Fold Alpha/beta fold hydrolase.
Amino acid sequence: MTATDPWIRRFFPSPEAPVQLVCLPHAGGSASFFRPVAQALNPRVEVLSVQYPGRQDRHNEPMIDTIDGLADHVSRAVTRTVDRPFALFGHSMGATLAFEVAVRLERAGRFAERVFVSGRRAPSCHRDERVHRRDDAGIIAELRGLSGTDQRIFGDEELMRMILPALRNDYRAVETYVWASDHLLRSPLTAMTGDDDPKASHDEVRAWSAHTVGDFEMKRYPGGHFFLIDHAPDVIGVIGERLARPVATPR
């Protein structure tokens, strides 16, 4: 793994890859979540995984509890780091963040080959969610319900004490996010969803189509919020196929 920027991790550097994929983790997640993606796509695609402050090797840094604040930092990191055609992939909170990063980059004249959003409703579909206001037990109950966390972690009190601050911070960021821009992406957009995801209905996911003037597609998989874990080969296959056939982005 290399870290040329505090916000970016490269698990499998591939300087000859024709395209880079910037991956943005879910709430409470870290860059290492996308290590298997980086391995699977190497060397065709170089994966750059975003590391939020307040976790893993950045655990001593102050966390950022707004999507806008995160998007400002990540878009600057992408500008510093990406040196060839690129795409964005975000899961859950990371999907909303990927959208906001894409908006900022387009306003600066940089256009993604494609934006992949996974496990998240469109920015225009608001829900009044307040998980970040729950006590620790309430947040843990939310995690259990989403079935994306190794069950052994819940029995490790010390580890849970380390994880909970980042989780609460990220839930605050995504639950207080308000879509306030009329900017339509020019990049094509692929939305991925699980059939039984309690966080995003099919209609809410399809609403992503109203946020781009580029091509739109929706991919559905069996499973819940973390469907992409059980269907990793299929999800990675879609990413690889789409990036092998770039679509001309309107400028």
Q: What stands out?
A: The mean pLDDT is 91. The chain has eight helices and eight strands.
